[in-house]
């Protein structure tokens, strides 16, 4: 088994691949205060829950946008799996050229999504990643990352709205029945859920005006499943997209990591 781990600001997503198939996927909370042995215990418990033996893990591939815990997680995984993780970077073979003004600025999560898009989907493509931030990555017909748009994430926006407006209370984040809300909660749900979907539709129109016809729009991230059904454009929901990209990186660099 190849273990793929994507460290995000809110969650760490982890999945195992056997013979090119994802056999399990789970997530745990990102906690910058945990030590390597504490993460190791959490991961060991999760693997046990899925009846996965540590001896069956052949290799580990990892990406991170949280530098404070990258080495902590590498140490935890090395201890558990007796294998030094292959950490995603632009110095590895990825099959993707980063064609932006300052390539090192591109987050590893965006690179992983672009790698998966290039490997398995029709191009040009746009990858929507709805997590702590909402990110849109443009992948052109040659498989090059040619630009990104980043905006506040859904939960971040909601929290800012609630904390900044004294008359607005908390609410459950779920789709509204109507765009025209008749209560405060419905109005906020409309703005957050339908407003985000409409924003994505509008931004995709702008991307297409610059990129040319978009053949594929992919969506991933913890909030994507709530927003994507309300987009008017065709968007394919792929919750494991970043892990799929990491697995592709492992396949291209296996001689380095073994």
Strand order in the largest sheet: 3-2-1-4-5
Query: Helicity range of the residues?
Result: 25-40%
Radius of gyration: 19 Å
Query: Element order, helices and strands?
Result: EEEHEHEHEEEHHEHEH
CATH superfamily of the largest domain: ATPase, nucleotide binding domain
Q: Which structural class do the helices and strands define? A: alpha/beta
Shape: globular
> How many extended strands?
10
Distance between the termini: 13 Å
Shape-level CATH architecture of the largest domain: 2-Layer Sandwich
Classify the beta-strand content into a percent band.
Answer: 15-25%
**Number of helices, counting only DSSP H or I runs of 4 residues or more:** 7
Descriptive report:
The protein is an alpha/beta fold and 258 residues long. The chain is built from 7 helices and 10 strands. Strand 6 and strand 7 (133-139) form a beta hairpin. The longest helix is centred in the C-terminal third of the chain and has 28 residues, at 184-211. It is globular, with a radius of gyration of 19 Å. 37% of the residues are buried.
Brief summary of the model shown:
The protein has 258 residues and is α/β, with parallel strands linked by helices. It has helices at 36-49, 67-81, 108-120, 154-164, 184-211, 224-227, 241-257; strands spanning 2-7, 11-18, 21-29, 59-64, 86-87, 125-130, 133-139, 145-152, 216-220, 236-237. A hairpin with a 2-residue loop joins β6 (125-130) and β7.
